[in-house]
């Protein structure tokens, strides 16, 4: 019986026959995939900026190295993890991630997260009515893009990424721009230092380039802090109007108090860690 088994095993196989071993590709030859992200700003950056008049930006897909960034305790403690991630994802290293408008940065985050973990984002939401926390799921594929109308009668487009408006009460001319990553990080630092009692005037100080041509910090701070409420409200509306963004709002029905509210997707490091 043993002899028959050996014969069957050797049938069709000659001792001198050599078997070809398939050559596996070198893992080092792997090309990282990329994707194009639509910019809500449509490239409304000053002349000379790498994204001037560009509708899209190319980013890498997230990797294990990027996940390391999101778990780096030092970066998390300093509030720099998301900023470092965005910079790492951008393929064109001549682009400073902090120079991007906040809305364009949000767009990169949404595209990167959806590609890495899927479009279903499960998180927890605090009900605006009863403050109870409940689980909720956002569909990242249903976002809208807000691109401002820059050709309004009361808005002067200066062609360099800035816009001029006239405040209704004082008739002071304010030259403004959208908030950038640099501004966002400064605000986050103030919040972490428990100095966040001046969010409205801080926004003015970041987004206003000059008042009536006076661009020194002392003048901008003085006008920002002392303008009448009518001018303050108008200026906030104009800054919101010129700021491109990804609109991630959906209806939330609270299972606790049964109220229905419109909520916005929360961003942060947990945005990139889906619930298992």
Uncertain segments are: none
Taken from the alpha-carbon principal axes, the silhouette is: globular
Strand residue content: 15-25%
* Whole-angstrom Rg: 27 Å
Average pLDDT, all residues: 87
N-C termini distance: 55 Å
How many alpha or pi helices? 9
Summarize the main sheet. Answer: 4 strands, antiparallel
Record field, number of beta strands: 12
Write out the strand line-up for the largest beta sheet, numbering strands in chain order. 6-7-8-9
Q: Helix coverage percent of residues?
A: 25-40%
Written as H for each helix and E for each strand, in order along the chain, the element string is: HEEHHHHEEEEEEHHEHHEEE
Count of structural domains: 2
Structural class: alpha+beta
Short structural summary:
By secondary structure, the protein is of the alpha+beta class.
Fold and architecture overview:
- This protein is 33% helix and 20% strand.
- With 276 residues, it is an alpha+beta fold.
- The protein has two domains: 30-145 and 246-272, no CATH class; 148-243, rbstp2171 (2-Layer Sandwich).
- Strand 3 and strand 4 form a beta hairpin.
- The longest helix is centred in the middle third of the chain and has 16 residues, at 102-117.
- The relative contact order is 0.15.
Fold blueprint:
Elements: H1 2-10, E1 34-38, E2 56-60, H2 64-70, H3 73-78, H4 81-89, H5 102-117, E3 120-126, E4 133-139, E5 144-146, E6 156-157, E7 163-166, E8 173-176, H6 181-192, H7 199-207, E9 208-211, H8 217-226, H9 229-242, E10 245-247, E11 249-253, E12 260-264
Antiparallel strand pairs: 1-2, 3-4, 5-10, 6-7, 7-8, 8-9, 11-12
Helix pairs in contact: 7-8
């Amino acid at each position: 019986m043993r002899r028959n088994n050996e014969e069957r095993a050797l049938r069709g196989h000659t001792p001198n026959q050599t078997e070809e071993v398939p050559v596996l590709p070198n893992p080092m030859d792997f090309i990282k995939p990329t994707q194009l992200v639509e910019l809500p700003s449509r490239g409304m950056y000053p002349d000379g900026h790498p994204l001037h008049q560009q509708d899209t930006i190319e980013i890498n897909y997230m990797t294990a190295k990027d996940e390391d960034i999101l778990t780096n305790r030092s970066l998390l403690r300093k509030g720099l993890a998301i900023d470092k991630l965005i910079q790492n994802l951008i393929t064109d290293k001549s682009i400073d991630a902090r120079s991007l408008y906040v809305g364009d940065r949000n767009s990169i985050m949404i595209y990167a997260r959806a590609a890495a973990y899927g479009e279903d984002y499960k998180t927890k939401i605090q009900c605006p009515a009863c403050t109870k926390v409940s689980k909720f799921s956002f569909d990242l594929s249903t976002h809208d893009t807000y691109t401002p109308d820059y050709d309004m009668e009361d808005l002067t487009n200066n062609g360099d990424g800035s816009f001029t408006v006239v405040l209704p009460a004082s008739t002071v001319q304010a030259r403004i721009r959208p908030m950038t990553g640099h501004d966002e990080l400064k605000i986050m630092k103030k919040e972490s230092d428990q100095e966040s009692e001046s969010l409205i005037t801080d926004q003015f100080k970041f987004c206003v380039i000059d008042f009536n041509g006076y661009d020194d910090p002392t003048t901008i701070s003085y006008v920002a802090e002392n303008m009448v409420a009518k001018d303050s409200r108008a200026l906030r509306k104009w800054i919101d109007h010129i700021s491109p963004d990804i609109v991630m709002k959906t209806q939330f029905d609270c299972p606790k108090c049964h109220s229905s509210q419109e909520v916005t997707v929360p961003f942060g490091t947990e945005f990139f860690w889906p619930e298992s």
